[in-house]
TrEMBL record:
Residues given in the record as [4Fe-4S] cluster binding sites: 43, 47, 50
Protein's name in the database: 7-carboxy-7-deazaguanine synthase
Cofactor note (record): Binds 1 [4Fe-4S] cluster. The cluster is coordinated with 3 cysteines and an exchangeable S-adenosyl-L-methionine. Binds 1 S-adenosyl-L-methionine per subunit.
Protein's job: Catalyzes the complex heterocyclic radical-mediated conversion of 6-carboxy-5,6,7,8-tetrahydropterin (CPH4) to 7-carboxy-7-deazaguanine (CDG), a step common to the biosynthetic pathways of all 7-deazapurine-containing compounds.
Naturally occurring in which organism (per UniProt): Aurantibacter aestuarii
C-alpha cells in the first residue's frame, strides 16, 4: 500500500518546514555562533507572547523531504539548530541521523512538551507553564532557558531548575516586549541567585533573523 503524506510525516521522512536560514545564534550558551536554523511548523503549547505564532499551524507549512532539508543545511554551516513551533511534535530521528551522518553539530530548541526523539549534541529547554516538559527532556537538557514575562516566572524558573539534571546551565531571558521592565528585575535576581545567568535575544539587538 502506498504511504500517504501523513504517514511519511509521522515517520519523519517529511517535515512541515516553515523556514530555514543561516544566521547568528542570538540566545543562550551558543550566542554569537554562526548556525543554520531549521524551523519546523506545528505547536499546540500556545504561549500568548510567542513571536512566531505563524508556526503553530503545521498545515500552513509544506511537507518537505527530510533529505532535502539536510542537503540545504550542509551548504551553510556545521552547526544546525532545529526549532519551531515545537519540533518534538514530530519524530526527529531521521533528521538528526542524516545531519549527524554529515558530521554536523545538531542542537534543538524545545519546550519539552513531547518526548525527546533524535540524537542531539545540545538540548535547549525552554519550558512553558501551559504544557510542562516530559521527563526525557528534563534529563537531557544542556541548558534551561526560562522566559520572564512577569514576577511569577521567577517562581516557575526555580520550579523548573529543580527538575533538570545537575549539569544543566540555567538562564533567565526577558520576554522582548517587556524587556524594559523585566531586565532590571532579572539582573537583580541573578545577582542574588548566581546559579542563574542572563540570556538576551542579541539577534534582535543586531537586527538579524
Amino acid at each position: 500500500m502506498k504511504a500517504t503524506t501523513q504517514d511519511l510525516v509521522n515517520k519523519g521522512l517529511l517535515l512541515p518546514l516553515m523556514e530555514e536560514f543561516y544566521t547568528i545564534q542570538g540566545e543562550g550558551f551558543h550566542k554569537g555562533t554562526a548556525a543554520y536554523f531549521i524551523r519546523v511548523g506545528g505547536c499546540d503549547v500556545g504561549c500568548h507572547w510567542c513571536d512566531v505564532k505563524e508556526s503553530w499551524n503545521a498545515e500552513l507549512h509544506p511537507p518537505t523531504k527530510t533529505e532535502t532539508i539536510v542537503a540545504n543545511a550542509k551548504k551553510y554551516s556545521d552547526t544546525i539548530v532545529v526549532t519551531g513551533g515545537e519540533p518534538l511534535t514530530w519524530d526527529m530521528t531521521v533528521l538528526t541521523t542524516l545531519l549527524k551522518a554529515e558530521g554536523m553539530q545538531v542542537h534543538i530548541e524545545t519546550s519539552g512538551a513531547y518526548e525527546l526523539s533524535g540524537t542531539w549534541d545540545w538540548v535547549c529547554l525552554s519550558p512553558k507553564k501551559l504544557k510542562l516538559p516530559t521527563q526525557s527532556v528534563y534529563d537531557k537538557a544542556n541548558e534551561l532557558k526560562v522566559i520572564v514575562y512577569n514576577q511569577d516566572d521567577f517562581r516557575f524558573a526555580e520550579e523548573q531548575a529543580a527538575k533538570v539534571n545537575k549539569d544543566c546551565i540555567l538562564y533567565l531571558q526577558p520576554e522582548w516586549s517587556k524587556r524594559d521592565k523585566v531586565v532590571p528585575e532579572i539582573v537583580d535576581y541573578v545577582m542574588k541567585n548566581p546559579k542563574w545567568k542572563v540570556s538576551l535575544q542579541t539577534h534582535k539587538y543586531l537586527n538579524i533573523p
